[in-house]
């Protein structure tokens, strides 16, 4: 679907997309992060805008340029991402959680740079759990009929893990990517299956991240239309 030929089938809809990966500071110069580039979330935001939606993009730690025609809020940590999502969710017909949210953060933040010392082994870094934002917004549904979409990257038993994760999170759709070294992170392509809470299963062949984004928006649009009746 080229931009010129894009149907405005999301006109009048407001969608919220999270993108990138959160960064959890350890000291003023270091953080715990992940390899999410932000390209899939940005493709989702750009595609939704091209289809006529009003788009809010919450971008965590991304190094790709802001997509055009989209309201962008930049965040760092999972706590900041959560606050931004909870604030924007009540206005959103759909929430797509493409960001990689750190499961853990350092239990303590060192206000000064952590220094090495000769002859002394470093201290271990204790971690604590971050809240599960997807599970929280799925349970809460800030707006009636709101469609909630999660993303999962799995290396083994992709479908079984995906189904279990969909049920655990309570979202409507879960995009499951099969990942291995060099396979998805930082690349322009994806291979995925979109699982629905209604039991549906939509395979998405290897292709540009925009194609996967369009499949996601097709599924979201259909669910919004059903809810509207
Ligand atoms: N997610 C979230 N909050 C977290 C962790 C994950 O909102 N603290 C969201 C992600 O944005 C993604 C989905 O949950 O949409 C699945 O993330 P994933 O890391 O695959 O799920 P986890 O439950 O953290 O499972 P795992 O132990 O496999 O990492
Ligand atoms: Ca995780």
From TrEMBL:
Cellular component per GO, a single term: phosphopantothenoylcysteine decarboxylase complex
GO BP, sorted A to Z: coenzyme A biosynthetic process; pantothenate catabolic process
Molecular-function GO term, any one: FMN binding
Reactions mediated catalytically: N-[(R)-4-phosphopantothenoyl]-L-cysteine + H(+) = (R)-4'-phosphopantetheine + CO2; (R)-4'-phosphopantothenate + L-cysteine + CTP = N-[(R)-4-phosphopantothenoyl]-L-cysteine + CMP + diphosphate + H(+)
Pathway: Cofactor biosynthesis; coenzyme A biosynthesis; CoA from (R)-pantothenate: step 3/5; Cofactor biosynthesis; coenzyme A biosynthesis; CoA from (R)-pantothenate: step 2/5
Keyword Flavoprotein part of the UniProt annotation: yes
Residues given in the record as CTP binding sites: 103, 113, 131-134, 151, 165, 169
Keyword line: Decarboxylase, Flavoprotein, FMN, Ligase, Lyase, Magnesium, Metal-binding, Multifunctional enzyme
Cofactor: Mg(2+); FMN
Details of cofactor binding: Binds 1 FMN per subunit.
Known EC number: 4.1.1.36, 6.3.2.5
Domain called DNA/pantothenate metabolism flavoprotein C-terminal: residue spans: 10-221
Region (Phosphopantothenate--cysteine ligase): 15-229
Family membership: In the N-terminal section; belongs to the HFCD (homo-oligomeric flavin containing Cys decarboxylase) superfamily.
Function: Catalyzes two steps in the biosynthesis of coenzyme A. In the first step cysteine is conjugated to 4'-phosphopantothenate to form 4-phosphopantothenoylcysteine, in the latter compound is decarboxylated to form 4'-phosphopantotheine.
Protein name listed in UniProt: Coenzyme A biosynthesis bifunctional protein CoaBC
Parent-protein start and end of this portion: 179 to 407 of 407
């Amino acid at each position: 679907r080229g931009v010129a030929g894009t149907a405005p089938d999301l006109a009048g809809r407001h969608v919220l997309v999270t993108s990138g990966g959160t960064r959890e500071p350890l000291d003023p110069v270091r953080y715990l992060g992940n390899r999410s580039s932000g390209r899939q979330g940005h493709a989702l935001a750009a595609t939704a805008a091209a289809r006529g939606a009003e788009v809010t993009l919450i971008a965590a730690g991304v190094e790709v340029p802001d997509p055009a025609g989209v309201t962008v809020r930049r965040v760092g940590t999972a706590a900041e991402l959560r606050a931004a999502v909870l604030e924007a969710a009540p206005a959103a017909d759909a929430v797509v959680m493409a960001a990689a949210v750190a499961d853990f953060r350092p239990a303590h933040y060192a206000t000064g740079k952590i220094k090495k010392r000769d002859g002394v082994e470093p201290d271990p870094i204790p971690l604590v759990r971050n809240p599960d934002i997807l599970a929280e917004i799925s349970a809460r549904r800030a707006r009636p009929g709101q469609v909630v979409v999660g993303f999962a990257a799995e290396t083994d038993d992709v479908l079984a893990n995906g189904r279990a994760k969909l049920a655990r999170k309570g979202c409507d759709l879960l995009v499951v990517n099969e990942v291995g070294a060099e396979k998805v992170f930082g690349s322009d392509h994806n291979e995925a299956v979109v699982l629905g809470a209604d039991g549906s299963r939509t395979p998405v062949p290897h292709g540009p991240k925009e194609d996967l984004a369009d499949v996601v928006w097709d599924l979201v649009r259909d669910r919004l239309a059903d809810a509207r009746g």
